[in-house]
Design a protein that fits this description.
The protein has helices at about 15-25, 25-30, 35-50, 55-75, 85-100, 110-145, 165-190, 210-215, 225-230, 235-260, 290-315, 325-350, 355-360, 370-380, 385-400, 410-415, 425, 430-435, 445-455; strands at about 150-155, 160-165, 270, 350-355. The chain is built from 19 helices and 4 strands. The chain has 3 domains: about 15-105, Orthogonal Bundle (Fumarase C, Chain B, domain 1); about 110-200 and about 225-360, Fumarase C, Chain A, domain 2 (Up-down Bundle), CATH 1.20.200.10; about 370-425, Ribonucleotide Reductase Protein R1, domain 1 (Orthogonal Bundle), CATH 1.10.40. Helix 3 (about 35-50) crosses helix 8 and helix 11 runs antiparallel to helix 12. With about 450 residues, the protein is mainly alpha-helical. The strands form 2 sheets. A two-stranded antiparallel ribbon has the order 1-2. The chain is elongated, with a radius of gyration of 31 Å. The chain binds arginine (ARG). Arginine binds next to helix 6. Arginine (ARG) binds near residues 85, 115, 319, 321 and 323.
């Protein structure tokens, strides 16, 4: 060969050093080694079974590939940058190890279907890890909901005290967000788990390959339908990154609430010393840095999705080298999302809830005003009129520095003669939450029912 490259036959000059450095991907795609070898083993076995190479050759290859994997896992493999990527490093090493037979591994295959296969295998594992992590996070949330089914806190709209809710109900709202993320990933897995192997460079191959066999061996649901699409499709990476961008947005919103709740003004929760950090200048500080980083990490997750969409949008069929740029955002999204999910679950398990503080805050801000309006409606006053009356009561409270439940009955009756002493039942926080007693409502009874449903769904019976 005029040149050390595996593709060097038609070249008379060796690659420019700067070009080599520009095109190399092995420093990041070596992460695919395990999957690359899995794919190669399946391919080699199929070549042998179909008589495209001899059984002996196929066995030799499989043996060699397994030895290479051991070497990689032991950290003893010599990754060569001049060999560009993970695929050519492994192939070259196989040939070094088993001789001429190694050169037959790439029969009926291209790096284009090879890399697409590796990526799908890698992502399938990442999806499974993340889904398991999300299930665990949901279990933590459901556990908190169970303990706090009747812990009362202020519910907010516009970050203004709106109506009392239970903390358990709030935890289950988060759990619903995470459950949807889980569903999206499970659905993304279905579209990820198909085998592009056999599409070769773009048009398929002239050998009598068995795509079903390699798909089966690799645990794919089926071979892909179209060779051009197989080597160029990166929808599965975008779908994953979109799903975790959404997850990142959810985690960021949760983190934002944790930050607010742990602030001096709220003091609803204590995230614990182990999950906070200090300030290098202000000795009194205990900062919610983990929660802030969770909020901050969503930036990566959201931008990785954009990066992949932009990467793909200008590409004609079929494979283009642009696709090499899909790996780093995908790896980053997979690493970042699982890290965030695991640390959030641990931080929540460690969190202390200050029920008294939450309760006190829930009693402020006329949070039972809607309950008073509903009380009047039940006494046959149209809702719009009831709203007006309660508005006037609230105004009276503001002028006289009173909470609703502190207004004397006689005074209340000046606003509406229909008000009786039973009004105080609906002005208490307990009365307010207990009365929202329907599916999806904040009543402790409903929270406990929702906990039971969620546990069943999570397989905790
Ligand atoms: N390193 C390449 C990638 O990540 C592998 C496929 C290269 N194929 C090619 N025909 N240049 O996409």
């Amino acid at each position: 060969m005029s040149n050390q490259k595996l593709w060097g036959g038609r070249f008379s000059q060796s690659t420019d050093k700067a070009v080599e450095a520009f095109t190399v991907s092995v420093h990041f795609d070596k992460r695919l080694a395990y999957y690359d070898i899995q794919g190669s083993v399946a391919h080699a076995r199929m070549l042998g079974d179909r008589g495209i190479i001899s059984k002996t050759e196929s066995d030799q290859m499989i043996c060699g590939l397994k030895a290479i994997l051991k070497e990689i896992e032991a950290g003893q493999f010599n990754w060569r940058h001049d060999l560009e990527d993970v695929h050519m490093n492994i192939e070259a090493s196989l040939t070094e190890r088993i001789g001429e037979t190694g050169k037959k591994l790439h029969t009926a295959r291209s790096r284009n279907d090879q890399v697409a296969t590796d990526m799908r295998l890698y992502l399938r594992d990442a999806l499974d890890d993340l889904t398991a992590g999300l299930k665990n996070l949901q279990r933590v949330l459901v556990g908190l909901a169970d303990i706090h089914s009747d812990t009362i806190m202020p519910g907010y709209t516009h970050l203004q005290s709106a109506q009392p809710v239970t903390f358990g109900h709030h935890m289950l709202a988060w759990q619903q967000m995470i459950e949807r993320d889980c569903q999206r990933l499970i659905q993304a897995r279905e579209r990820t788990n198909v085998s592009p192997l056999g599409a070769a460079a773009l048009a398929g191959t002239t050998y009598a390959i068995d795509r079903q066999q390699t798909a089966d061996e690799l645990g794919f649901d089926r071979p892909t339908e179209n060779s051009l699409d197989s080597v160029s499709d990166r929808d599965f990476t975008i779908e994953f990154c979109s799903s975790v961008a959404m997850l990142g947005m959810h985690i960021s919103r949760m983190a934002e609430e944790l930050i607010i709740w742990s602030s001096d003004r709220f003091k609803f929760i204590d995230l614990g010393d182990a999950f906070c950090t200090g300030s290098s200048i202000m000795p009194q500080k205990k900062n919610p840095d983990v929660a802030e980083l969770l909020r901050g990490k969503s930036a990566r997750l959201i931008s990785n999705q954009t990066r992949l969409l932009v990467l793909m949008k200008g590409q004609p069929l079929a494979y283009n080298r642009d696709n090499q740029e899909d790996k780093e955002p995908l790896f980053d999204s997979a690493d970042t999302s699982i890290d965030c999910v695991n640390i959030l679950a641990r931080m929540l398990s460690n969190m202390q809830v200050d029920k008294k503080c939450m309760y006190q805050a829930a009693g402020e801000g006329f949070s039972t005003a809607t309950d008073l309006a509903d009380y009047l409606v039940k006494k046959q006053i149209p809702f719009r009129d009831a709203h007006e009356i309660v508005g006037r009561v609230v105004s009276h409270c503001i002028e006289n520095h009173l909470q609703l439940r502190q207004v004397e009955l006689e005074t209340l009756r000046q606003f509406s003669a229909l008000i009786d002493s039973d009004v105080y039942d609906c002005l208490t926080l307990e009365g307010s939450v207990n009365s929202r007693d329907h599916v999806g409502g904040t009543a402790p009874r409903q929270v406990r029912k929702a906990v039971a449903r969620a546990r069943k769904h999570l397989g905790e019976g």
